[in-house]
Amino acid sequence: WQSVPSSPCLFHWGGFFLLFSLPFQSAVNVPRDFEGCSTLRKYFGQLHYLQSRIPMGAEQEAAVPIAWTEIFSGKTVTHEDIKYEQACVLYNLGALHSMLGAMDKRVSEECAAGAFTYLRDHFPHSYSVDMSHQILNLNINLMLGQAQECLLEKSMLDNRKSFLVARISAQVVDYYKEACRALENSETASLLGKIQKDWKKLVQMKIYYFAAVAHLHMGKQAEEQQKFGERVIYFQSALDKLNEAIKLAKGQPETVQEALRFTMDVIGGKYNSAKKDNDFIYHEAVPVLDTLQSVKGAPLVKALPVNPTDPAVTGPDIFAKLVPMAAHEASSLYSEEKAKLLRDVMAKIEAKNEVLDQFMDSMQLDPETVDNLDMYSHIPPILMEKCAALSVRPDTIKNLVQSMQVLSGVFTDVEASLKEIRDLLEEDEAQERKLQELLGKVPAPQGSPPVLSLGLAEVSKECSKYLEVHEKASFTNTELHKAMNLHISNLRLLSGPLEQVRAALPSPSLTEDDKQVLQNLKRILAKVQEMRDQRTSLEQQLREMIQKDDITTSLVTTDRSEMKKLFEEQLKKYDQIKVYLEQNLAAQENVLKALTDANVKYAAVRKVLAEVEHKWNTTVQTLVASYEAYEDLMKKSQEGKDFYTDLEGKAAKLLEKARAACQAAEANRQQILEK
């Protein structure tokens, strides 16, 4: 347990006073419990936040002296550097964790190595001999080794498999070997002085002891596998290593001696029993130990991590409102890095999207309509609407037929009247010619206009006019009848049962192979859409991540020389989504190739479906047109009736006039003949 400065930290910088004495005093005199660990972590974190805001580093304006008493030499070492104070606090954190670990039950695999590891990796080793690389390595491996011991003991109590216990024990040996190497270093030996030999002897004793435990359990595994020769050599090796441990244990406490004696009883009993069984029962050859596979350690312990910017550990940053201009500038640089990343990704996405759009346009494959088989299974809504409208008007066809019949009747009456008028005029002309012949006059040439009385001349003129109008109207009437005959069958269909309407609509007849081709094309088109949707989603996720990514707080507590490294680490958070996007983009080529192949097979099916769809649409349009033509037919029929009714009246009057004129002309001819 080391010492830190005992006076409060009162900083004066540019007229800004910062009183930091209360947390400082708490960090100097922490209680020897986990609350003390929490206090040290919080103080360490606040120092980390402070160092980037106030110039308290070595040879800076606001630097204050920090004193540290070395544990081995007893010397006091002072530096004016806030990082030195952080290093002191961190060392004390590791020391306090190790004290608590020694007092705790041997059931936890967490250890104090984290603080020493962070100290070794992030701070200069020249501050103090306590913080030299070799001493810190020694501390780290001692902490890891003891933590692995706890896990080993727990594994043995839980009766874990022999091979696993052997690997855990072998890892204890590995940690203590690393610690022993640190102790054997000449620099470490000079720093530790006389305790170096005692520590080295103790560590070596542990190496042999736990190597014996590892081989004991390898022998037990060989026993389980009925490899009786291997069992003997492992137990013999365990016994040899235990004997070496006992030699090195001289001067150790009685508890250690008792543990060694107990282990000797176990291993000795195992070895004697195994050797006897093999000599008299199994007679297996005992291999040389070096020919057997070495036991590889299993590092299962974990160092308690140190994260000076974790708010859950350090509490809120009490200097949060102090953001240096350099941090804002660095934040702008980081924003440009994010923008560059987004530009690079979007360039790839847009290039692939352009290829995809051009490809889909050339294919002319609409996923919504490529499979239109469902449309043939029901009557389209527009036809349903027409059927429903006709269902509430049951007399539609009857009314149309009657209207046309009435029109035909009037048409016939008009035609009869005009024909009778024309016949009267022709008869009168013939009589007039006979009269002229009797009187000895030369008759007019055949085809020349007849000489008529004034009354008959007017009748002839009016008749010609009516005939011309009738002829034109006759053409319209004929067309109207054709239209009626064309639409009336469709109207009868729409007025009938829906099953008949559905049956009248064309539908495709596909083979099973055709259906399989169609399903395969649909599946690949769905893949294309899925690829599009995933790409859009990933792009949106990336944009949102970039928008929310603000590392100003981290930049405040990061040294300028570490900015590039911090940027690289922070940008790694985008690696996973970039991988997903790369996979999405790379998949496009295979998807489009599969779509090309499927489209080739779909060509024949596509032609059939297109032809049926055209017929289906034509039929629907024809039926809709027939419904919509009904009102027009009724209107034109009524107009025709009105027209012919009027013409019929005029023709009737003209007929009466023609009869009267003919009678007058005939009477006149009779008078002439009598004379």
Provide structural commentary.
The protein has helices at residues 21-28, 34-51, 82-103, 113-122, 133-157, 162-184, 186-192, 195-224, 228-248, 254-282, 311-314, 325-363, 381-391, 396-438, 454-495, 498-504, 512-548, 552-556, 563-571, 575-674; strands at 10-13, 16-19, 66-69, 76-79, 110-111, 302-303. It has 675 residues and is mainly alpha-helical. The protein has three domains: 19-131, no CATH class; 173-299, no CATH class; 351-441 and 454-674, Butyryl-CoA Dehydrogenase, subunit A, domain 3, CATH 1.20.140.50. A two-stranded antiparallel ribbon has the order 1-2. The longest helix has 100 residues, at 575-674. The model is unreliable at 1-22 (pLDDT under 50).
Helical residue percent? over 70%
What is the CATH fold-level name of the largest domain?
Butyryl-CoA Dehydrogenase, subunit A, domain 3
Instruction: Tell me the overall shape.
Output: elongated
Identify the strand order in the major beta sheet.
1-2
CATH architecture of the largest domain: Up-down Bundle
Structural Rg: 56 Å
- Measure the end-to-end span: 170 Å
Task: Specify the CATH homologous superfamily of the largest domain.
Answer: alix/aip1 like domains
Q: Element order, helices and strands? A: EEHHEEHEHHHHHHHEHHHHHHHHHH
**Number of E strands:** 6
- Alpha plus pi helix count: 20
